[in-house]
Automatic annotation (TrEMBL):
One of its GO terms (biological process) is potassium ion import across plasma membrane. Its main location: membrane. Residues 1-22, 359-392 are annotated as: Disordered. Residues 24-163 form the Potassium channel inwardly rectifying transmembrane domain. The keyword Zinc does not apply. Residues 170-340 form the Inward rectifier potassium channel C-terminal domain. It is a multi-pass membrane protein. GO terms for molecular function: G-protein activated inward rectifier potassium channel activity. Belongs to the inward rectifier-type potassium channel (TC 1.A.2.1) family. KCNJ9 subfamily. This is G protein-activated inward rectifier potassium channel 3. It comes from the Eukaryota. It holds the Pfam family IRK. Residues 383-392 have a biased composition (Pro residues).
Amino acid sequence: MCAGRRHRSPGPEPPRRRGRQRYVEKDGRCNVQQGNVREPGRYLTDLFTTLADLQWRLSLLFFVLAYALTWLFFGAIWWLVAYGRGDLEHLGDAAWTPCVNNLNGFVAAFLFSIETETTIGYGHRVITDQCPEGIALLLLQAILGSMVNAFMVGCMFVKISQPNKRAATLVFSSHAVVSLRDGRLCLMFRVGDLRSSHIVEASIRAKLIRSRQTLEGEFIPLHQTDLSVGFDTGDDRLFLVSPLVISHEIDAASPFWEASRRALERDDFEIVVILEGMVEATGMTCQARSSYLVDEVLWGHRFTSVLTLEDGFYEVDYASFHQTFEVPTPSCSARELAEAAARLDAHLYWSIPSRLDEKVEEEGAGEGAGGEAGADKEQNGCLPPPESESKV
């Protein structure tokens, strides 16, 4: 059987190789940039999502410009209406009925535009019933102003309540570990939720990202392979009240089936883990991501327990959330471990009957020397030999 891992003093460090470029950062950001987009107009077809995805400083700038430009646009139209009707030339004429009372310039027109769109209505400037074009413009500005309000308030609400902010309180262990569980090698990592409000319908997935070359010679630089974390058994659906250790059993279907400790350290891959669920407070879907490179996978380690039973409740110590400790672990691959276990089982299966037969033969020899009284007795479930019957 393959040798277990023993505690020993650290030797000289091997030469460091060049670090792999992450596909997904530890904080969940995808390290991918879109370049040479030939049709940027596609972003305008989904303007709401485009505005929600903007950075905060750009969102605030667009928010201010949307209102300011709308007020300036309609203020200019109100000034043109007053200028076209000649209201600005009859400012002191009491017999003249203007379109808007007390509108004596562009600044006044701009202020009237703000009062109209925001429905402030100070009462100093008011439209008269002798201006049909002004009445039509008032209706148009009221309708368009309501649309701008609904659009911008909706964008800011979505921006503020984005579920990716909730993902900041979902934590992953800084390292993944490989050790034995129930006699099988398993790749494990830990997840936790820092908030007391829970994630509803939480589920976990894991992807292996590494280069691959097909039989036809095609090179796939970022090939994605699923790592089973309990989809068939339902273990991927989590009740994330306290930190949980997620386990990937390295079996014949696992891409690490033939990977020993040394082979794993020489490999070049990235494991991306994805936690999804609904935020209990808002009902919005939340996704948290993290990743592990080769040097972040510790062979022969296990996570330190963080859950303790106190007086009437359980307490989680997040100070030990990322801590691991060494445990004896075979350094061979899971395939070699399974073959060694199968050989051991086969040896025990054949050795136990042979030892029973030897014991029966010893007992039979002792009974023959003691006399013929026990010759009729059965030995290990077998009838006496034919010689005993002929003597009788």
